C-alpha cells in the first residue's frame, strides 16, 4: 500500500489525511497538538464574494470555486461523522458611512458582473434582515450564497473521520521532511511551513478573536454573518449555537500569539458600533493564532518536488478553501492536477529550482 505522511494537523492536514485514507493510502499525520493552531482560532466565514474587489480576479475565482465545493464536502463530513458544521446560511456586509456604502456598490457591481448573486440593501432592507443592528447602519450587501461554519465542530469532525478511515495520528513534531520515509509527503504546517521548506513564501499573520456567550434576556445574536469596516478596521460577527465569534485583528507579528489589551479593546468597540447589544454578552474567550499568509493572498498548493506536495498558505481563508485544497491535493497524488487550483501553484513565485528540504529546520507545531 502507498504510504503518505501529512505534516500538520489543522483542518487542511486533517481533511487531506481523511480523504487520502479513503482513497487507499496508508496515512500518518504528524502534529504535536492537532487542531490547536489557526484552525482553532477562526470565525468560519465562507465569504469570497463579499470580500471581492476589482482587480483581484484570481483570488475571487479561487474562492468561488472553493465555495462551490462546500455543500458536497459538508454533506460528506456529516455522513461520516453525524456532525453538521453550518451555523449561518448568508453573509451581510454593512456600511456605517457614505464611503463604505460606495465600496459596497463597487463590490456588488464587480462581483455581480462575474456571475455571482449579491444584493445592495438600503437602511430599511438591512433592518428587515437583522433588526438588532445599530441604527447608524446606512446600507448593506447581502450575499445569500455565503454561509459560515463552526470551525471547532469541523476540527472535531475531521479528526473523527480521519481516525475512522484508518489515519494514524502521531503527536510528534517533524524537524526535517527528509527524515520521513513515506512515498509521498503533504506539507500542511500552516505558518510554520517555511521552517520545513526554506524560502517557501509563507509567513505568520497574527489574528485575535473573541468568543462571546449569550446570556438570558440579552439581545439575540444576528442570524447571518455580519461584516463591517469600523475606523478602517475590518470586523465580523459570526453566530454560534451559544453566542457569537467576534473577529479579527490582523498584525504582522511573527509567531506571537499573545492576546493584547489593544486587540480586545478594538474588537469590542468595533463590534458594539455595529451590534450595540453585544455589551451584555459574556466574554467567554479571547484567543490568537498565526494565519499562514502569502504575498498574493492565494494558497501554496501543488508540487514542491517529486515527493512533496504543498498544501499551505491559505491565510485567513483556510476554512473557505478547505474543500478545494483537499480535492487539489488528492488530484496531485493521482497525477491529474485540478485546473481550478492552477492559480495556487507554489512555483508561481520562482522560475528557479526550489531548495531541498533542510535537515536542520526547526520543528513545527
From TrEMBL:
Annotated FAD dependent oxidoreductase domain residues: 4-325
InterPro entries: FAD-dep_OxRdtase, FAD/NAD-bd_sf, Gly_oxidase_ThiO
Keywords, sorted A to Z: Oxidoreductase, Thiamine biosynthesis
GO biological process: thiamine biosynthetic process; thiamine diphosphate biosynthetic process
UniProt pathway annotation: Cofactor biosynthesis; thiamine diphosphate biosynthesis
Polar residues biased stretches: 348-365
Protein name, per record: glycine oxidase
